[in-house]
Design a protein that fits this description.
Layout (H helix, E strand, L loop, with lengths): L22 H7 L2 H9 L4 H19 L12 E7 L5 H16 L5 E9 L2 E8 L5 H13 L15 E5 L7 E6 L7 H16 L4 E7 L6 E5 L1 H6 L4 H11 L3 E8 L2 E7 L6 H5 L2 E5 L2 E4 H4 E5 L7 E6 L26 E11 L5 H15 L9 E7 H31 L1 H25 L5 H30 L5 H27 L9 H5 L1 H28 L31 H11 L7 H19 L19 E7 L6 H15 L5 E8 L7 H6 L9 E8 L9 H17 L4 E5 L11 E6 L3 H16 L4 E6 L6 E7 L1 H6 L4 H13 L2 E5 L8 E7 L1 H4 L2 H5 L2 E3 L5 E3 L4 E7 L4 E4 L2 E10 L6 H13 L6 E3 L11 E6 H31 L4 H6 L6 H11 L5 H30 L4 H28 L8 H31 L4
Parallel strand pairs: 7-24, 30-31
Antiparallel strand pairs: 1-3, 1-4, 2-3, 2-28, 5-14, 5-15, 6-14, 7-12, 8-9, 10-11, 13-14, 13-17, 16-18, 16-19, 17-18, 20-29, 20-31, 21-29, 22-27, 23-24, 25-26, 28-29
């Protein structure tokens, strides 16, 4: 058993400190905190606990999955139903509306959307945030397949196809394959990508691996209608010949010579030559081969989608990354060059480490190089969320270490190296234990969870500083043995620090219950910080006393007086709580507080008026736009998406050409590293694209450009500034072709359909369209509104082939035959498949007209059909082609028809809220303006209504919930204080500095030109607990001094002088931690709130609280 450490033997001292009370009575009067300190201050278990904490913390850092952003559990699903031949309005009434009614019955569904187009309906079911994916999908599938009676059997609609979507469908890595020497065709690059899909799927942790922009492998049979007619054949004959020749069976076995031998009946089509030599008919006794009436080729001659990659000035000539390698620089993409490409997208399984997976993928690519992957095919990493997560984690952990060292250095300067070592070890153990808690709770190691730790440093260090400072002060002013001093010193501040920690937790924890997407996004901050508070309290009571016993000593020159037989010191008088106060600080507080004490009521009233006016003035800054309100500021990302919507009748070739023109402009932007254009298909989605359903963008008139910038350390300006500079040039290019161009940045927080959304509701579609056009016109007059668009589709014409049913019946032809013939000839549907052992995906065989014939009505009408008696009937004899209007898509939201008008805000004030407010004022001045809704959807919008959505909705919900959390936190603080002090008025004194934080928060944002955001609100909420903590320490100390017989005037002055040191240390510590967040684009609002709020409110706390207590106590209200 270890022996107690003897106190240091000092020499004489000029001061005459008073001893503590006898140890025999001390043991009886210490509370729980003092008892814990006494138990662990010289216990063998304490160093083991410390060692175990460090080991578990390091383990947590290693094993916790690393991601850049928190993974928000939001489940959605698309239900797709085909209804060939039906108009958009019939699809709406027969498919979409009944489906919406059925889906809205599911418990936990937040929104039900639908899009009805000619021949197809897409119903999207979005569940509330936080409902487990498996549970959501079980409910959805049960609802879909137990209510199929809403789809009558003979209606002609397909069975519902359910496609679930969630955060795990977002690729964490994309690889773009291209050949700088143009030695590989698009088909060959696609086959390489399919080969890599299999190889990369074997990497542990990968989920979905797929190719974007690949050219489909298929066999095209382009027939000549004249040749078919000459041989007396029809399209249907070709289809039947292919099906008949491509059938086989292995179900028969025979027994011979005691052996069971399988029999294969027939062989399958495996080569293109076999297809060419297929007999499709007879002509005067001679076989007619397929090649006699059609051209047969494998490989897509006309692509229905296109992917190109190009390079900007920032691209490194030796390769941007490890996968783009060559000994010859000509084999690597150079700035200004453009190449055909395909892109591989890789998603990960839930809970897996993105960093490990992306590194393993790169290693797998290196193993395949020069083996399965040709040396001249380059692999460009166009997304690596694992690497960005690793970079962010390294940066934040570095900031965390730096902030901790700065706090320790601060304590070293203020208290000495021994005290700094105690605080530093306590903070380190607390941080490591908090990481363990975060891992056990299920959080990943992402920017928010790490920011939570950096933000928490100032409050986590508080317990260690207060307890260490009090132990040190007691030791320096006592002649008792250290082992007796430490428990009493800890007990003296133990209860106040516990209460203070509870008040901070009461302020923070309600934020964990914020609803919507923002709740789980920010939840690591209140949960990790609250857990850290509990752990820091435990560490302070266990570790700090053990370290203090070994590191702290009596002040040099001060003797340790021997005990008498009863165990008490020779001087048995009790020690005063105010001993050890710095005379200069005491004099300063006397000069500051003295003029407001006594009968100077007018001075106190004037001071209160000035404080109230300054607080009100600070609160009014957002009203005058001196401080801009915004959900979250833009982050500095290395990627950007350009979304292009061409007119609905645009072919994919024109879309690709327009995207290429924009790409050539991007080649001139110095910060652009590389870019990829996607025409007729969507670029690999991110979380924003998941919520906006960009993955459904597959029409020929849809185009995306993925723009990748150089790293932020190589750029002179943030990505938001680059995006602003790109908008005008790219929009100008798009306007020349009638395209709608949107610059889509990666949102800093939860994504929405668009930053500014006006939902137009009306039963009458003409009224709805008119209101939408009116809103668009109004937005064009608002300064700063850009990227204005609407879901109204431009009117286009369609061809309708009208069958004369009576004549067709007389000639023995049905309308079904006409439809099938046109589906084959125009749609190019696969009538059979080529059985290629080396192809990953089935190779369809299509019978199709040539592109030139498809564009000629005469060629369509020249098709022949076979009548019941076997004769040929020209299509022209029973049908005619006429033009008609194409019905645009019909949108629904929560069972109501809606038209969306979307926009973004750019310029000096880029918060969409101000654009919305300007539109609100504009519409209110119009006599025929629709009724406007801000919070809820309108009920029965017969006359038309407008609901504002987008960033406004999530901002409203977030600030509403945070405001409620703030209110609940303050109420909980009040309840705790009432329970502790058994008074209703004293808690008001303690909580008086809370509103004073606004005097620092709002001017701080105005001074730095930053928006007041959701993270600013988090800092404001946290400040309520931090400031109350300081107030508690002051009030408890005042009451201790009063209990010792000190006068009220002296007590309020001396309490401030004694407690200013730990209060200032903890405040500056929190400000130091916040300093390391100031440069972060997202969380700088939190940092500004803490730095400026603490600076002002801490200064005022040591003045306002003592004076408020003085006024209340003087009037005997407390």
């Amino acid at each position: 058993m270890s022996q107690p450490l003897p106190p240091e033997l000092p020499s004489g001292s000029s001061s005459q400190p008073l001893p503590l009370a006898p140890s025999s009575s001390a043991a009886a009067r210490v509370g729980p905190s003092g008892a814990i300190a006494r138990l662990f201050q010289d216990n063998h278990l304490t160093p083991l606990i410390m060692l175990l904490s460090v080991i578990l913390g390091v383990l947590a850092v290693v094993v916790t999955p690393k991601e850049e952003e928190p993974q928000i559990d939001v489940t959605m699903a698309d239900i797709m139903v085909s209804f060939p031949g039906a108009s958009a309005r019939e699809v709406e009434s027969a498919i979409a509306t009944p489906a919406e009614q059925v889906m809205s019955e599911i418990v936990g569904v937040e929104h039900v959307y639908s899009v009805s187009r000619q021949g197809q309906a897409v119903i999207t079911v979005q569940f509330k945030v936080g409902i487990p994916r498996q549970e959501s999908l079980v409910r959805l599938y049960n609802q879909v397949y137990s209510n199929q009676d809403w789809l009558p059997a003979n209606l002609g609609a397909s069975q519902p196809l359910v496609k679930p979507k969630g955060i795990d469908d977002v690729p964490i890595m994309t690889l773009t394959l291209y050949d700088p020497q143009h030695g590989h065709s698009g088909e060959e690059l696609t086959r390489l990508a399919h080969m890599l899909e299999v190889a990369l799927k074997r990497v542990p942790g990968t989920r979905d691996v797929y190719t974007v922009g690949g050219i489909p492998d298929r066999v095209d049979i382009r027939f000549d209608p004249a040749l078919l007619a000459g041989f007396g054949l029809t399209v249907y004959d070709l289809q039947q010949a292919l099906l008949a020749a491509n059938s086989s069976s292995q179900e028969v076995r025979i027994t011979r010579n005691n052996l069971s031998i399988p029999i294969q009946a027939g062989t399958l089509l495996t080569q293109v030559d076999e297809v060419r030599r297929l007999v499709v008919g007879m002509d005067q006794g001679a076989a007619v081969y397929l090649e006699d009436v059609a051209s047969v080729s494998r490989g897509n001659t006309v692509a229905d989608q296109s992917v190109m990659t190009g390079f900007g000035p920032a691209h490194q000539s030796t390769g941007q990354n490890d996968l783009e390698k060559s000994t010859d620089s000509t084999f690597i993409g150079q700035p200004g060059q453009v190449f055909p490409a395909v892109t591989l997208a890789i998603a990960k399984k839930p809970g897996e480490n993105a960093v490990d997976i992306t590194r393993a993928i790169q290693q797998r690519i290196e193993l395949l190089r020069n083996r399965a992957l040709p040396a001249d095919v380059q692999v460009l990493v166009t997304r690596d969320y694992g690497e960005t997560a690793s970079q962010k984690a390294r940066k934040l952990i570095s900031d965390l270490i730096s902030a901790t060292l700065c706090v320790v250095l601060l304590v070293l300067v203020a208290m000495g190296w021994r005290q700094a070592l105690i605080v530093g070890i306590a903070v380190l153990i607390t941080l490591l234990l908090t990481l363990v808690f975060s891992w056990v709770w299920g959080f990943t190691l992402n920017r928010v969870s790490l920011f939570a730790l950096i933000f928490s440093i100032g409050i986590l260090v508080d317990d260690g500083i207060v307890i260490t400072e009090n132990i040190n002060r007691r030791i320096q002013n006592s002649r008792r043995p250290i082992k007796e001093i430490i428990p009493l010193a800890v007990d003296e501040v133990g209860t106040p620090t516990i209460m203070a920690s509870l008040t901070i937790m009461a302020a923070l924890l309600p934020m964990a219950f914020v609803s919507g997407l923002m709740g789980p996004y920010m939840s690591p901050i209140p949960i990790n910080a609250s857990a850290g508070m509990v752990l820091s309290q435990i560490v302070a009571f266990i570790v700090a006393p053990w370290l203090a016993l070994r590191l702290l000593r009596h002040r040099k020159g001060e003797p340790a007086e021997p005990e008498n037989e009863s165990g008490s010191a020779s001087d048995s008088s009790s020690e005063s709580s105010a001993e050890g106060v710095n005379p200069r600080i005491l004099s300063l507080f006397s000069h500051v507080l003295g003029p407001f004490l006594g009968d100077h009521r007018l001075r106190r009233g004037l001071l209160a008026s000035v404080v109230i006016l300054l607080t009100l003035g600070a609160t009014a800054l957002p009203v005058f736009q001196a401080v801009i309100l915004k959900m979250l500021p833009f982050d500095d990302k290395s990627e950007l998406q350009v979304v292009v919507d061409m007119p609905e009748d645009t072919p994919v070739e024109v879309t690709a050409r327009v995207l290429m023109e924009m790409g050539h402009y991007l080649e001139t932007v110095k910060d652009v590293d590389n870019w990829q254009t996607y025409a007729g298909t969507a670029a690999p989605i991110n979380f924003n694209g998941l919520i906006r359903q960009y993955y459904l963008r597959s029409e020929p008139y849809h185009g995306d450009i993925q723009v990748n910038f150089s790293g932020s350390d190589r750029r002179d300006q943030p990505s938001h500034m680059i995006a602003q500079s790109l908008r005008q040039p790219l929009t100008t290019i798009g306007e020349r072709y009638g395209a709608s161009v949107k610059i889509v940045e990666v949102p800093p927080g939860p994504p929405v359909l668009s930053p500014l959304v006006a939902e137009i509701y009306a039963v009458d579609p003409q009224l709805r369209a008119a209101l939408a056009r009116s809103v668009v016109a109004g937005m064009q007059d608002v300064t700063g509104l850009v990227d204005i668009d609407t879901t109204l589709e431009a009117p286009i014409r369609q061809w309708e082939l009208v069958v004369d049913r009576a004549r067709a019946a007389r000639l023995g032809v049905s309308q079904q035959q006409v439809v099938m013939a046109l589906q084959i000839a125009l749609g190019g549907s696969g009538v059979s498949y080529l059985h290629d052992d080396h192809a990953k995906y089935p190779v369809p065989i299509r019978v199709i007209l040539s592109d030139a014939d498809k564009a000629r009505p005469s060629a369509l009408l020249s098709l022949n059909l076979r009548s019941r008696d076997g004769g040929l009937v020209p299509l022209a004899s029973i049908a005619d082609i006429r033009e008609a209007d194409w019905q645009g898509a019909i949108y629904h939201k929560n069972l109501l028809p809606v038209t969306y008008v979307t926009a973004d805000m750019a310029g000096a004030i880029d918060s969409p809220l101000y654009g919305m407010f300007a539109m609100v004022d504009q519409l209110e001045q119009q006599a025929d303006a629709p009724e406007q809704f801000f919070i809820r959807q309108p009920d029965l919008p017969e006359a038309g209504a407008l609901k504002w959505d987008g960033e406004w909705q999530i901002t409203y919900e977030t600030f509403r919930d945070m405001g409620m959390a703030y209110s609940v936190g303050i109420f909980m603080i009040f309840v705790l204080l009432v329970a502790q002090f058994r008074s209703y008025l004293l808690p008001l004194v303690i909580m008086a500095p809370i509103p004073l934080t606004l005097m620092g928060i709002m001017p701080g944002h105005a001074l730095l030109g930053r928006e007041f955001t959701a993270t600013s609100m988090i800092g404001m909420i946290a400040l309520a607990g931090i400031i109350v903590r300081n107030s508690i320490l002051l009030v408890v100390f005042i009451r201790q001094l009063l209990d010792e017989g000190m006068s009220l005037e002296d007590a309020v002055v001396k309490a401030g002088a004694v407690r200013i040191k730990p209060i200032a240390l903890t405040a500056v510590s929190a400000m130091v931690g916040a300093y390391f967040i100031l440069n972060d684009p997202i969380f700088n609002g939190l940092a500004i709130s803490l730095v400026f709020g603490l600076a002002v409110s801490t200064l005022l706390t040591v003045i306002v609280v003592p004076l408020s207590y003085y006024v209340m106590a003087r009037r005997r209200w407390i």
